[in-house]
Amino acid sequence: MRKMKSLQENLKNLPKYSLSENQKNKIILALNQEARSRKKVRIKRPIFAFIVISVLAFVLIFSSESNSWLQELKLSFQPQIELNATEAKAFKNSHDIIGIEGKVGIFPNVQFVAEDARRGAKLMLYFWGDPSKLINKKYRVEAVNRYNEKINLSEGILYSPLKAEDAHTLTSFSPFSVEGKWQLSFFIEEQLFEEFTVDILPPFPKTDHYTLVDSPTEIKVDKEVEINIESFAASKKEITVQLVDKRGNVVANEEFVLTDYYINASDSNTIQIYSGKIKFPERGTWRLIIDGEKTKPFKN
Amino acid sequence: MPNRSIEDWFQLYERDITSYLIYYTGSLDVEDVVQETFIVAMKKMSRFNEQSHPKTWLISIARNIVIDTHRRRKVWERIKDLVSNRQELSNELEMQAIAKQNNIQLYKAIHRLSPQYKEIVILRGILELPSKEVSEVLRSNVNRVDVMFHRSLKRLRDLLEEEGFTYEEDEKLTRKPKKSS
User: Are A52 and B60 in contact (CB under 8 A)?
Assistant: First the structure.
């Protein structure tokens, strides 16, 4: 042991070397020269990169492919408008409503998801104001986002009150095309009555045959949570659901069982519902592999 | 900015790189490799991982340059060795210049170690890099570095003893008189 220590001590004490001042100066000179020649190249590089990016952007914007990221890119180049209405707030009026208290509200207080018709099905719209200017009048709900995309969510006639409101109607909203902030404008006889903004969640992760019907952002992390998957084509009693992280590692592997089915009113197709538990370890980017079919990456 | 820091790094770590190269190659003529090390570092600056120590990173670059050059020269060396044995003589002279008289035996023993042991003795023993940094240079893990260092010291001690040297109480390396059989 002692011998080893002495040996180590001797190794430490072996001389260390440095180049002569003359040699060092020569190297510093060479380094400076190299840096200068690299700078010249660096000035040219951004110009070249700018041209390449411009050409690519041009090709992408005007190409007719309909990839979602491409759509997003296209949208980001579009002129944006300001949505200046106030944000919708939840309030209680015999039950939970979202909108502007004392003016207009949607029941139930639902979190809408892009491309989804489920959460917009069967909504009650409540209006407060002069009943004579509301009941039996035509109404229309229009949504616009910051890219000036417009959707007619619903239109019809307002009816006399059911409870504490001054007029109401039962309706369904057409799906929002993309996620993000949308401004909802309520018109009575084509006159603006009230408007507010809502945040729309990204579309549900889906594959060719399966759709997750819980929004990943609403699923708690680091906890096993029951989630549902819909399918219009499968007839299996059980399906395998795998959670994959962004590096491609499978972090959960679960069996989901067929728990229910219903017939879709719009196209009379049978929809199967599979339920099971899954745990998202943390917030991040994930994919699901449902019965061997991959979803696109999504964030929770 | 990268230009400024490479010059700072040169001032700070030139001694480590020069010492490493002299012990690693067994030659005093390392000026060109030192220069190439810093030029390569300047070019690759954007790839420098902030978590590792600049010294460790620079040593890795120097090491790769030596290995690459060695690989390229290998064929030539084989032929040259066959033609002349002058190489050995110049090495002997250089060894003496590098290690000075009192350390020459230790230096010779280091160069008799296997390449792996030799490298670890230079990095861990002579340059006193922490095990973690040595593991980064050698792309190994810390435990393996510790084990290898221990084994290389043992081997070094054995080599010295084979030559009849031992450590006395005063911790100096002295030659034992050889027993006559």
Answer: no
The stretches of chain B forming alpha helices (DSSP H) are 2-25, 31-43, 54-83, 86-112, 115-120, 131-138, 142-162
Q: Please, which residues 144-163 of chain B have a Cβ atom closer than 8 Å to chain A?
A: 153-154, 156-157, 160
Given CB atoms, is B3 within the 8 Å cutoff of chain A?
Answer: yes
ipTM: 0.77
Q: For residue A1, what is the nearest residue in chain B, using CA coordinates?
A: B154
Lowest mean pLDDT among A68-77, A104-113, A196-205, A261-270: A68-77
d(CA A17, CA A27): 16
Q: Which residue of B has its CA nearest to A23?
A: B31
| Closest alpha carbon to A91 in A73, A78, A104, A81 | A104
Question: pLDDT, tens digit, for every residue of A34-71?
Answer: 888 877 766 777 788 888 888 887 777 665 444 556 66
- What is residue A251's three-state secondary structure? strand
Q: How far is A11 from chain B (nearest CA, A)?
A: 5
B22 touches chain A (CB under 8 A): yes
CA distance A16 to chain B (A): 5
Return the H-helix or E-strand segment holding A56: helix A21-62
B103 → chain A, closest CA residue: A14
Within 8 A by CB and 6+ apart from B180, the residues are none
User: Per residue in B37-68, is it b (16+ CB within 10 Å) or e — as a string?
Assistant: bbbebbeebeeeeeeeebbbbbbbbbbebbee
